[in-house]
Specification:
With 150 residues, the chain is an alpha/beta fold. The protein has 2 helices and 8 strands; from the N terminus they run βββαβββαββ.
């Protein structure tokens, strides 16, 4: 699994012109599920999302987690995070999970977050509006031995 975190002052997601999710201060999490992703990956990434110190506190730039600042997460499914663009000009999505499994693991990730969560709609064409804060953007990966220790 791969998750791109973007620290935001606010964010909203729309499907077919209707807002389906909105947060204030917090993180936008673009969540990509790969063929080899597991439930353990989803739980580990959720823990990292909530625990990473990406917010300023006490005069330090990155001293508090989204939980510590009372923030929220806007989780949006993003199978294109598993695109392979090494050959040609059209990306391959063969490394992305099948939709049913992808949705199941996306839901496990969202359920494992221990802060307020707003969600996009899995598999939908979405419009994301965010006000970046920093900007701070972090890529988390649980695949291919990319997990941090601890």
């Amino acid at each position: 699994m791969r998750v791109v975190l973007q620290r935001v002052a606010s964010a909203a997601v729309e499907v077919d012109g209707a807002e389906v999710g909105r947060i204030g201060r917090g993180l936008v999490a673009l969540v990509g599920v790969g063929r080899s992703s597991t439930e353990e990956d989803a739980r580990w990434l959720a823990g990292k999302t909530v625990g990473l110190r990406l917010f300023p506190s006490g005069g330090e730039r990155m001293a508090a987690s989204v939980a510590e600042v009372g923030g929220a997460v806007l989780a949006v499914s993003q199978f294109t995070l598993h695109a392979n663009a090494r050959k040609g000009r059209r990306p391959s999505f063969a490394e992305a999970a099948e939709p049913e499994r992808g949705q199941w693991l996306y839901e496990r990730y969202c359920e494992a977050l221990t802060v307020p969560v707003a969600r996009g709609v899995f598999g939908a064409d979405m419009r994301l509006d965010l006000r970046a804060d920093g900007p701070v953007t972090i890529l988390l990966r649980s695949d291919a031995g990319m997990r941090d220790v601890g």
